[in-house]
């Protein structure tokens, strides 16, 4: 497993669909911009057979500055984006061998927790 960057994703999508590379790039840019726009407006984005993007509140917590470990800093509540995958996506991801994910994350240990 490896990381697929935006350029590689656009190239593959162009090859699969037969749509010009520049048109696919424009569509992807528009998709990302509209996603940001609607989430920033507080809207939920539901893509059937893929998943749902929505907003959640991350509770505030006490943080510490590594340069001043004795002083606490209050981190306030904030909005975060959550992606909830559809059932099919969850099922397909669950079938990925664990060793591949550990390798991708830089954890090559092969032990059971």
Number of helices: 4
CATH C-level name of the largest domain: Few Secondary Structures
The count of domains is: 2
Q: Determine the mean pLDDT.
A: 90
The CATH topology name of the largest domain reads: HU Protein, Chain A
Q: How many E-type strands?
A: 5
Rg of Cα set? 19 Å
Helical percentage: 40-55%
Would you identify the CATH H-level superfamily of the largest domain?
A: IHF-like DNA-binding proteins
Class inferred from helices and paired strands: alpha+beta
Order of strands in the sheet with most strands: 1-2-5
Largest sheet: 3 strands, antiparallel
Topology order in helix (H) and strand (E) letters: HHEEEEEHH
**Which second-level CATH architecture of the largest domain applies?**
Irregular
N→C terminal distance: 22 Å
Query: Which shape, going by the Cα principal axes?
Result: extended
Give the low-confidence spans: none
